[in-house]
User: What shape does this take?
Amino acid sequence: MNTQQLSDNIAKVRLRVRESAEKCQRLPETISVLAVSKTRSADAVAAALDCGMRRFGENYLQEALEKIEQLAGRGIEWHFIGPIQSNKTRSIATHFDWAHSVDREKIARRLSEQRPDELPPLQICLQVNISGEVSKSGVLPEEVPALANAIADLPGVKLRGLMAIPAATDDIAEQHAAFKKLREVFDELNANGAGLDTLSMGMSGDMEAAIAEGATIVRIGTDIFGPRQ
Ligand SMILES: *Cc1c(COP(=O)(O)O)cnc(C)c1O
Assistant: This one.
């Protein structure tokens, strides 16, 4: 993809965010676009950075670490959004700003312990399994309050909100229903004083529904960088 196409794609994504927000009387500035750069080269990330994208999401640790090193000092905010096994926590805690896919207390504890002292706490979301997700990842909705409680006081991580990857569907009503479920878990936590501000939900195919249901971060890969191989 050339730079012009990339820049057009990013403009289109921004326009969709703005229009979706306005449709439901939300402020577009309250929704941020995470550019999902898995499988893309460091050059592609640099080009998106030149188009004004600042937040990038990665799923595969090894690949991400190479890009993070190549693009060091460019002011990128790196978000880990892939499954987190115990043997990955040290690298994630060291090299990322956010992790969206925390679904176990043990992982949160390791991230907290391994977060370097000189860095601010790692910003985290709990991944919730709201609709019989394709992957087995994610804590069940009814288990979220206990998990949120268990990790609330860990010094090296800061719980910001919830994330989900509902099963892909073209059915708009189903998209809304899944995101609404996550939103309800979120509202209930906040009603009990959790103080969360982040709902990470919505991808290229369903960002409009996610924004209508309250997304504050949409994670967009294909519609920015083109189809993945
Ligand atoms: C790949 C991926 C995305 C982006 O998906 P697109 O459909 O390409 O926009 C978002 N979130 C997660 C967790 C992903 O793995």
In short: The two ends are 13 Å apart (CA to CA). The first strand starts at residue 32 and ends at 36. Strands lie at 32-36, 55-58, 77-80, 98-102, 122-127, 157-163, 198-200, 217-220. The chain has a mean pLDDT of 96.
